[in-house]
Specification:
Strand order of the largest sheet: 1-2
Number of strands: 2
Oligomer: single chain
Order of helices and strands: HHEHHEH
Length: 109
């Protein structure tokens, strides 16, 4: 039984030390990095598009602000995004926040 244990330990150590194993691990982490980059890109695009729309309009509803900040910008920032999306978000934070009913009225509804 002891020789089997030694054999299993030796095989496990050989697999971990092999370059094929580390290439596999590297490939998995590379896929995650690409997915993260795509998510950051999509988040950046939505923050930019919506943020510029609100800035050009000159105001934002509380619901729009919550959606933009809580559900787009904060996760984007946690993934490592920054730059122009941060500058846009800083400008959005300066906008007048109005209630949803006021927003409906201003949009002609």
């Amino acid at each position: 039984m002891e020789t089997w244990a030694q054999l299993i330990v030796s095989v496990v150590i050989a697999v971990i030390a092999s370059s094929g194993f580390w290439a596999f691990v590297s490939k998995i982490s590379e896929k995650k990095d690409v997915r993260t980059q795509v998510l950051i890109g999509l988040g950046h695009d939505r923050i930019r598009c919506l943020g510029l729309e609100y800035i050009n309009r000159g105001w934002i509803t509380a619901d729009e602000y919550e959606n933009l900040y809580e559900y787009l910008y904060k996760p984007y920032e946690k993934l490592g995004g920054n730059g122009s999306a941060k500058r846009i978000m800083d400008e959005v934070k300066k906008l007048k926040i109005i209630s949803g009913k006021e927003g409906d009225f201003k949009n002609g509804q």
